[in-house]
Structures are given as C-alpha cells and as structure tokens.
Amino acid sequence: MRTIYVCEDSLTGIFSGIYEVWKRKMTAEEAGLEVGDSFERRLFCEYIFCKAEERKALAVIRMIQKNLGADVYEKISYALLSADRRKADMVFRAMLEAKKLSRKDRLMEHLGNEAVRAVFGMYRQVANEAHHYKGFVRFRELKNKTLFAKIEPKHAVLPCIAEHFADRFPQENWIIYDKTHEVFLIHEKGKRYYFLQQYMCMKGDSGSAQNIAGGFSEEEMDYETLWKGFVQSISVAERENRALQNQNLPLRFRTNLVEFSKEEWSDSPNFGEFSS
C-alpha cells in the first residue's frame, strides 16, 4: 500500500511533508505528497495528514541549501508557490533524482527527468508572473495616506515581489492584497514587511470585505481622472494594434490597472490605521 502525505499549501507545510517522507527514506513508489484538502483520493493508498512545523521545514531547507545549493533551493521555493497541484510530489521526486547525481547543484539541468522538468516549468511560470507584477502593480492612495494595490495572480507570487517593492518604497506605508489567495503583503514605513491572511485583518463581521480604510483620497481620485484622460489622449484609433497590446499587457492583468478600471474596488478588505 502506498502512503500519501497530505500537506498544508504553504512552504512550511510542504517542507514538513517532505521531512516526514525523507526521514523514513521512502521511494517514489512507496510514498507521495498531496497539497491541501481538495484532491482525488486513490485506491490502495493510505493518507496521512502532516502538521506544518517550522522545525521540520527548516531542517529540509538547510538540507537543500547545503547539498543542492542556493540556486536550486530558490527554484524549488518558487515552484512550491505554483498553482499546480503536483508541486509537492514533483519536488520530492526531483530531490530523489538529485541523490543519483555527482553534481547535485546542477539538478535543474537534468530536464530529461520528468519531475525535474515539471519543477523547472513551475519555477518559470511563477517567476514570469512575478516579473509581470513588478510592472503591473498599481497603487492607489487611501484617505489615511496608505498606498493600496490589489492583484489577482494565478500563483502565490507575493513572496517573490515583496523585496522589490520594499526596496522601492522603504519610507511608505503600503499594502498589496492578493485576492486570489486572500493574503496581504503589508509594509510599514521604515520597517520590515510581513504577510497576513485576510481573515486576520477583518474587523467584526465585515465579511463582505468592503470600504478599505474609508476609501480613496480625493487627491487620488483627481490623479486617476487625469491619468485616464492622458492614456485616452495618446491613443491613436487608426493605429490601434490589439494583438500587440494583448501580447505586451495580457487581459488577465488589466482588471486592477487604474487606466483600464471602470468601477471602484468594492470588494476590497476593511483596514484600520497603521499602529504607531
């Protein structure tokens, strides 16, 4: 009977699952990993739910960094942010493949292996989407002068773009809300950023997630009107190339871009002031 370890969909959760499998020295035929709680159960398999533990996750992280190198660890970490349900099992299988190599730090070059190829593909997808969001994130100023942006990524890219925006706006209060995964990236001026799940930020029974910090500032609305007018004025209808536009700015990124928006963000979460 094959043993399937079920992990929480987080880096800590998946690395904790890998820890359990690795500790028992199990092969891919003997064990596998699943993420979350909505997966298809298979016959003749035993399912064991793994608790996410920092101690176990850190042990696996140190092992990967020591034996496979920082570059492979970064690619694996990006792959585990993917929306692909196979990610945990593919990373485990790729790590098993590394045991066969003399140059373990060159694991990601062995694309002939199915698991390595899958992990590398997930890494590329996450990295590409994160790169897009570094340019497509649009901040809007709230009445309390906090900068707020909402994104709807396919993959959980917030950890990939956090350092970029922390470097760009070190002396600003800002928030990036990942609506897809209901996670906030929060930065207080002069401090380190951190992540919060949406339910931890809600007040009372404001489950409809509306009216963030009282809405947007009047100055913000004035600038948005000017910006939309500018974008409209530089467009030449006779030279419009929709195919090229869609290539440079895919439709799925436009929902939360100020220049394309037609409605207010009525589903934005409710926040209070930053603590002093």
Query: What fraction of residues sit in β-strands?
Result: 5-15%
Q: What is the rounded distance between the termini?
A: 56 Å
The succession of helices and strands, N to C, reads EHEEHHHHEEHEEEHH
> Low-confidence stretches at least 5 residues in length (pLDDT < 50)?
203-210, 271-276
Major sheet attributes: 5 strands, mixed
Mean pLDDT: 88
Classification by helices and strands: alpha/beta
Record the strand order, biggest sheet: 4-5-6-7-8
The counted number of beta strands is: 8
- Percent of residues in helical segments? 25-40%
Structure description:
This protein has eight helices and eight strands; from the N terminus they run βαββααααββαβββαα. Strands 4-5-6-7-8 form a five-stranded mixed β-sheet, covered by helices on one side. The chain is elongated, with a radius of gyration of 22 Å. The protein has helices at 11-23, 54-67, 70-79, 87-98, 114-136, 158-168, 218-233, 242-248, and strands spanning 2-7, 31-35, 45-49, 140-141, 147-151, 174-178, 183-187, 194-197. Helices cover 38% and strands 13% of the residues. Residues 203-210 and 271-276 have low confidence and may be disordered. The protein folds into two domains: 2-129, no CATH class; 137-256, no CATH class.
